[in-house]
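Predicting structure from sequence has reshaped protein science. With that in mind, we have picked out one protein's residues alongside their backbone shape tokens:
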Amino acid sequence: MKFIKITAILLTICILGVVTKGYSKEITDKKPAIPVVMKFGTIPVLQSLPLFVAAEKGFFKEQGLQVEIILFNSAMEKDVALSSGQIAGYFGDIMTPLVLQANGIGVKIVAANFNTSSEQRMFAILSSPHSKNKNLEEVARQGIATSSNAIPEYLIIRLLQSQNINKNNITLIDVKNIPIRLQMLLSNQVSAALLPEPLATLAEKKGAKALIDDRAKGLSTT
């Protein structure tokens, strides 16, 4: 498992280098004095860690690339930035490119780098520190904070259905900004929330309770 994770990290970086290196060279031939900076967007999820490792360790520079990683608080903000040309690429879920392509945005998937295993979760539904005694069915009725019309909504439905909770008994609260979603959970403004790692672990350390997660369910490929 350790070997697979390391290989996935390198694969992501190499593919990014192959895609952008030719572009960088073409521009450099015309204007050698002007460095080309690739702006690459991501959101605060554990799967984006390879990007930050590559930047910190200088892997991009070793390939002759200048990459600026831009952190967005929600997938929607990231998608708007891509559509308007503010960023050249991004890390995100697989469904987003399909939606963007359907709306005429030219985007291409170049790598998929992680999936959940029996030891590692990527998303979890957590109850607030003040709702720790409530079960999954109770918080589902009261409302779970998530991002609507996106992969998180699909995850919640699939996770709850795996516990025989009917879709009609699920209430979702649309909070697209992930850090705000975390704060609303911890301050008891919502009874429960779906959070990605590493924010799910942070919420647990601050008193939230994980009710269910996606480990070994094959739902969170990125």
Q: What stands out?
A: The chain has nine helices and eight strands. The radius of gyration is 19 Å. The chain has two domains: 38-103, 123-213. The longest strand covers residues 37-42.
